[in-house]
Amino acid sequence: MVQIPLKVVGGKAGEEVEESLYEVRRKIYPRAVHGLFAGWRWSLVWLTQIIFYGLPWLTWNGRPAILFDLLSRRFYIFGIVLYPQDFIYLTGLLIIAALSLFLFTAVAGRLWCGYACPQTVYTEIFMWIERKVEGDRQKRMKLDQSGPSAAKFGKKSLKHLLWISVALWTGITFVGYFTPIRDLLVEITSFGLGPWETWWVLFYGFATYGNAGFMREQVCKYMCPYARFQSSMFDKDTMIITYDAERGEPRGSRSRKADPKVLGLGSCIDCGLCVEVCPTGIDIRKGLQYECIGCAGCIDACDQVMAKMGYPPGLVRYTTQNALANHWRGPELVRRVLRPRVMVYTSILAAVTIALFTHLLLRTPLKVNVMRDRATLGREVEDGMIENAYRLQIINAEERTRRYVLRVKGLESAEIIVGQSIEVGPAETHLTPVTVRARPGEGKKGSNTIVFEVEAADDPSISVREKGVFLVPR
Is domain 366-472 given the CATH code 2.60.40.10 in the classification? Predict the structure, then answer.
């Protein structure tokens, strides 16, 4: 233990007490557990990883179905093409994610942490590999305490080789969302991988290897901010993993045939399995602790012990503080879920989600930016006409070639002389020069507002109007 002296004046004059402000990590050896919640956790592991590893391989219109092409500033999500101008959708998704986290936490605690957080998911995968190679808890502890040997070296080497393989493939998959993964694998096998792709493959792989293989619960306890502010979203009607002290205490060991009432004992036999299966090493019997990630491993372990002892399950269970104190069950517990805080979160989440996806589905797949030609102000040309020059940036957000017709309004005689129509390829951006003329005497001297209309030649519903400035010489 690393100790930093801290002087504290006690009851006696001049007394100094040395306390430790930092404790070197104690390695945790979680025991494997099976049961309802372990099954749910592994179902989420499979689901999240099938999505994560599988999406980069899906194709859509001859290109990856999900591709964030940073070089060309295009983001493909199945049939949707987004541009940096569509940043509002990312903002909306982040708001939805935050509200969902608040809602799930208010209802049932740290569901995200216990079942779907990448740290939890990859820690589960890495611990599964560790158990397959080195054995369960006791065997791993014995192996670590043993001296150097060929068998120990072989097991440790195989474990780390498998860990590194999973971590590197995770890094490759991550980069595969930004570079087509088939092209990426060709570049890797031909040693032609670019510096930035190499950096992110190694960085993401190293982060996965370090966080899931070594740091594990340290990330949840000390690095993740959620563990620190989660309590602000809890109340006494939040479903949390709770030890029923009224039923379990006083705890003590006994035979299966013994009557706990005769012995003056509660249902807890003090076997310690709830601590041994905990990935963060806490004792749930001490009450709610910020280190608890809500994985429910202790519930599965305790229910198995209760079944062996012939006691009813639920000594450790999902419940609320109010339900535990008032002995609520079923309907009473459900009614308390629909409290004002939950309803507010649900209403806001539903409104934002509906608004975002409605806007996304109804958006016009065309964007236009009007830029004046700064090198040329309003000028007189032949026949006394007033001429202004512009550049129009036309973004085709569809994966098909479109021809657009350009018109201008705002001044009665205003017309486009150069750039009446333009063809833009699929998911392309085209910058085209446009010249607008108007008769002298129309509009006031100086700045006049005009409107450019850009419309698809074969589909009038695809149309955008953008304002511009027409300058009349003084």
Answer: yes
